[in-house]
Structures are given as structure tokens and as C-alpha cells.
Design brief:
The protein is globular. The N terminus is likely disordered. It has an eight-stranded mixed β-sheet, sandwiched between helices. α5 packs across α6. The chain folds into two domains: about 230 residues, 3-Layer(aba) Sandwich (Rossmann fold); about 70 residues, no CATH class. The protein is of the alpha/beta class and about 325 residues long. About 40% of the residues lie in helices and about 15% in strands. This is AB hydrolase-1 domain-containing protein. InterPro entries: AB_hydrolase_1, AB_hydrolase_fold, AB_hydrolase_sf.
Length: about 325
């Protein structure tokens, strides 16, 4: 392991913002990523919209003795440079395998072993965690590669329900054209949102959350590019449920009690009749579950090996 990687294990999470990322050249792309911990189990972590791998620093501090967390900046985020115009599930898998094979990572043994610089051996498995948008990517990966996963950890995950507006703007040509024009001239959308809020058709949390990504022209341009770019990640919920049961895949779902963006009801429906390998946990928080104040609670549950009767915990 490199000297830079070792530094990541010694510095507390509140100091990570000042650390430079690690870089991997993969095909024609440059992947920026963080490594937290030095445990025997390999855990890939996928961040939310507009964020970076640094979001998992606090969780990495709590899990670092048991897991090695590898947290890439997803394409169009952080310092990653992705030159292709498309990104699909196989591209994500290839990216993660390249990171696993990078010589900066130590061997992991869950349940197989991998020598540094070789990548996963046949039969070895890894865990995947996804927060918000990263949850949708993790779900899609689990659907295509379920036998290669040791655990699926979903933190306020997108992807458990098809959002009509996301479908319209990314899966249809006319909707995508309207989306582009709206991001260039959003005045009509702002008026519609203000009217909906005054009529109590749009709650304050979603109103503020939406304005966070629409007020600035660059943010609107990024929103169009990112939504369109990740359009191929469309997990099939029924197929996923079947695959999780068949593979007896340990699946943990975390939600915020006060989250108005992604509610725990979605997790309850998803986990219905899923068996004792699936657990749903409700935290005293909103949508931003990766805050340092939640890290110890989430880590304690991940490190436990209990069975999870159906229902929220």
C-alpha cells in the first residue's frame, strides 16, 4: 500500500476535505477516488448527486478495521474525468474492478482472497454501498451481478420507485428536449413551483431541495448532463427482489425519519417478504444520512450479523 493510502487511515474524518484524491487511469478515463480503512472486506461506496467519494469519510472511520472502503468520484462528479458520452452498468462494474486491481489496495478476503494488483479472483465477492443517487447505481449493479456481491447497503437510496419526471426527461426524446430548454430558460418552472407551494401541493423540503439545483445556471447545466448521463441505470424492482432471495444477499436499507425526498415507505414495500437477510433501519435524521453524527449508528448495524425480521427498526 502506498504512503498516500496509509495517510487516509490515520487522519480523522473531519480533516479529509483537505486531502488530495487518489487517481487511477482506466482505459481513456481518469478515476478520482478515496480509500478509507484497511479491513479485510472490500466495500465500494457510491455517493449521491453532486457529491464525491469524500462523503463516506466518517463512515470509513467507523468501519475501517473491518472494511477497506473504496469510494470513487462518479463520472461528471468530483475530479473524475470520463470521456465517453454514455455510462452503463457494465461500465460501472469495469470501473470498480479496475479500482480493485489497483496496486494501492491491500488484499481482501470476503470470502475469497485477492493479491494486490490482480483484481478479484473467481469466486471472490465484494460489498457495495450506495447513497441517494448512488443507491440507484448500486441497485442496478446488484441486479446484473448478484452472485458477486457479499452485501448490498442502501442509504436513502434512489431507484426503489420510478419517478415520472425523471422517466419523462431521460427516457423520452420529447421529454429530454423539454428538459434541456427548461434548464436554459427555467422561469416558467419557478412560477409553477411557487404556485404549487402556495397551494400546498409541493412541500417545503422538496421546494428547497429543488431550488438548490436550479438557482444557478451552471447547476442547471450539470443537472441536465448528469440526469441524462445516468439514464441507463433503471433497476427492475421485482427482478431484484427475486435475485436477492435466490442469492440470499444480505441487504441493509437505511432511511431518515424526517426525509421528505426518499421516504422509508419505499423500503418497506421493497423488503416485503424478503426474508431475514434484509433489514430496514430508520434514523432520527433527514435525507443527509452520511453526516458524521449518523456514522456510528450505521456502522454498528453494518458490523452486526443479526437476522432482520420484516419491519422498520
Amino acid at each position: 500500500m502506498t504512503e498516500q493510502a496509509s495517510r487516509y487511515m490515520l487522519i480523522r474524518a473531519d480533516n479529509f476535505q483537505s486531502l488530495p484524491p487518489m487517481l487511477l487511469h482506466h482505459q481513456q478515463h481518469t478515476i478520482s477516488y478515496q480509500v478509507f480503512g484497511k479491513g479485510p472486506a472490500l466495500l465500494f461506496c457510491l455517493h449521491g448527486y453532486g457529491e464525491s467519494g469524500l462523503e463516506f469519510a466518517a463512515l470509513g472511520e467507523q468501519l475501517g478495521n473491518d472494511y477497506t472502503l473504496v469510494c470513487p468520484d462518479l463520472p461528471l462528479h468530483g475530479k473524475t474525468s470520463w470521456t465517453d458520452k454514455s455510462f452503463e452498468v457494465d461500465d460501472l462494474y469495469s470501473l470498480l474492478m479496475a479500482l480493485a486491481a489497483d496496486t494501492t489496495l491491500s488484499a481482501y478476503t470476503t470470502p475469497g482472497t485477492t493479491a494486490p494488483g490482480t483484481g478479484p479472483t473467481p469466486g471472490s465477492r465484494f460489498s457495495i454501498a450506495g447513497y441517494s443517487m448512488g443507491g440507484r447505481l448500486a441497485l442496478s449493479l446488484a441486479e446484473k451481478y448478484p452472485a458477486e456481491l457479499a452485501e448490498l447497503i442502501l442509504i436513502a437510496p434512489d431507484g426503489l420507485k420510478i419517478n415520472f419526471w425523471y422517466w419523462l426527461t431521460t427516457q423520452t426524446n420529447c421529454g429530454n428536449r423539454l428538459f434541456r430548454k427548461t434548464m436554459q430558460r427555467p422561469a416558467w418552472l419557478f412560477r409553477a413551483m411557487e404556485t404549487a407551494r402556495s397551494l400546498r401541493l409541493l412541500n417545503q423540503s422538496i421546494y428547497k431541495f429543488t431550488h438548490r439545483f436550479l438557482d444557478d445556471p451552471q447547476q442547471r447545466e450539470d443537472l441536465y448532463a448528469r440526469w441524462t448521463f445516468f439514464r441507463h441505470f433503471r433497476p427492475n424492482k421485482k427482478r431484484l427482489q427475486q435475485l436477492i432471495r435466490i442469492n440470499r444477499l444480505r441487504t441493509l436499507l437505511f432511511f431518515g425519519k424526517f426525509d421528505r425526498i426518499i421516504t422509508s415507505r419505499l423500503g418497506t414495500r421493497f423488503a416485503k417478504d424478503m426474508g431475514n437477510e434484509t433489514g430496514i433501519f430508520l434514523l432520527e435524521a433527514g435525507h443527509r444520512l452520511l453526516k458524521p453524527s449518523n456514522a456510528a449508528t450505521i456502522a454498528k448495524i453494518i458490523l452486526s450479523r443479526e437476522e432482520y425480521p420484516a419491519g422498520e427498526k
